[in-house]
Amino acid sequence: MKKLMLCVLGLLSSPVAIADNLCLPSEKTSFSCRVGVKSISVCSANERTVIYRFGQLNKIELELESAVHFSRISYSGGGRGQLTFANGKYKYIVYSSGVSGEWLDDGSREYIETAGVYVVKNDDLLADVECKDFSGDKYIGYLPPFEEEEFTYF
Known about the structure:
Elements: H1 2-13, E1 28-35, E2 38-44, E3 49-56, E4 59-67, E5 70-75, E6 78-87, E7 90-103, E8 109-121, E9 124-130, E10 133-134
Antiparallel strand pairs: 1-2, 1-10, 2-3, 3-4, 5-6, 6-7, 7-8, 8-9
């Protein structure tokens, strides 16, 4: 637990750096962003699983391979998608969302996008680590075939 909290604190207080995509050249990128000086990437090397990676190019600190556990919800003006990776008592839930914001002077609406990872232990939210920079799209992209799961709010 101490190591996890230090890791989360390090994410939140690290200086700005360029986002690194942690997927291998032979993998498809589903999602990738920077949090502090480290990155989070979700990659797919085959048509059955996705891989969650956290760390830096020269030092991957956490790698979890799993079947696709994807859920989403739509609401007026937006929606949210999330991928869940389990690791014992912990879950790492990669999320991306978009929602319509305020009306602008030109008659259009602001569109607000957020993404990051929830760190959950025994269904209790420990941290919401928001992405600061992206090496690709701000939303979860390519996924191997899957059956959608029930959405859970955090």
